[in-house]
Design a protein that fits this description.
About 20% of the residues lie in helices and about 20% in strands. The strands form four sheets. A seven-stranded mixed beta sheet has the order 1-2-3-13-5-15-4, with helices on one face. The protein has a three-stranded antiparallel beta sheet with strand order 12-6-14. The protein has a three-stranded antiparallel beta sheet with strand order 8-7-11.
């Protein structure tokens, strides 16, 4: 019996399949049932896929919130968001329930989760409960691909820079009568300086580590210089080649590596209802590239199209040809 059990377990683990979705980001994982504890081998497959592909999609996972939390806890301690609505008995679980009575807000902007923290989350796990018939997709962008797509001169320019992050989307929640509470939160979450180029603690890849939702300014630059550079860097998340668009179905579970991914939840389904439950895994403080600039030698997935040196591209064969 023991031999049969071991063989069955090995067979189940052999059925786990990781299928890349796009050239730079995303993979679907089949053969995992989150209703049951993962074996060490299964977890290693999932963990390695998350680090490599940055977003993993698991379909048809009809699980409870406790099972979702147990899956998240495999990656580390779960965190509690200081502002988002959560379950009273499970504060680690954020409930995102949008409808005509509660229109969606704050998520239709490119961002990484909670970079106003000294140690932003390692990853986020979102589970679909109610999905609109049309719309409600989530878009993801690989910020490792975004970094690789920059010119060497721009990589040199941003090397060693730091940007200030703030919980600015939630500041409007605090009126004149809430100043004491706001000051308390400011003490609890003092604005951190994070490297503009982060090094992934597992893969060693370099990551473009600025996002429109939480960044305020770049250290040692004048305001107009900082704003101009940040606007350019923010736009890298909008490059379609670096993106993945997930179409939700009920019982879909998506986990993304918050250290290297930005996301954007489209608000194109109002007034329909869209209900998600989210758990977030604590991370560590971002670390930048040490020492003077040198080209990155850590490989990533996908191939960034090389720049064509001026004067080397052949001219148009016909007057109306354009390149």
């Amino acid at each position: 019996m023991a031999g049969q059990s071991s063989a069955a377990r090995r067979s189940a683990e052999a059925e786990v399949r990781v299928r890349p979705i796009n050239g730079f980001i995303g993979a679907e994982i089949d053969g995992i049932d989150l209703r049951r504890p993962l074996s060490p081998a299964q977890f290693k497959t999932v963990h390695d896929a998350l680090v490599k592909y940055e977003v993993i999609v698991l379909r048809d996972q009809d699980i409870t919130v406790d099972q979702q939390m147990a899956f998240g806890a495999l990656f580390g301690e779960l965190s509690i968001h200081p502002f988002s609505p959560n379950l009273a008995d499970k504060p680690e679980v954020i409930v995102l329930d949008y409808s005509a009575d509660n229109p969606p807000a704050l998520t239709d902007i490119w961002h990484s989760d909670e970079t106003f923290r000294e140690a932003p989350p390692l990853g986020t796990i979102l589970r679909a409960k109610v999905v609109p018939e049309v719309g409600g997709d989530t878009l993801f962008a690989s910020m490792t691909a975004a970094y690789r797509g920059l010119s060497e001169r721009m990589k040199q320019h941003i090397h060693g820079l730091e940007s200030l992050h703030d919980f600015k989307p939630w500041r409007p929640l605090f009126g004149q009568n809430d100043r004491a509470k706001l000051r308390k939160l400011e003490d609890e979450f003092p604005n951190p300086w994070h490297p503009v180029v982060r090094v992934h603690p597992v893969s060693g890849r370099r990551i473009l580590n600025v996002n429109r939702q939480f960044c305020v300014r770049i250290k040692d630059l004048k305001a107009d210089e900082s704003d101009t550079l940040l606007e350019f860097l923010y736009r890298q998340a909008t490059v379609p080649e670096y993106q993945l668009r997930v179409k939700w179905r009920p019982h879909t579970v998506v986990m993304w590596d918050n250290r290297s991914v930005q996301h954007y939840a489209a608000h194109d389904y109002y007034p329909a209802r869209r209900t998600m439950e989210r758990v977030t895994v604590k991370g560590d403080r971002p670390v930048g590239v040490s020492g003077p600039y040198a080209p990155d030698t850590v490989a990533g997935i996908g191939t960034v199209k090389p720049a064509v040196p001026e004067g080397t591209r052949p001219g148009p064969k016909r007057a109306f040809d354009r390149y």
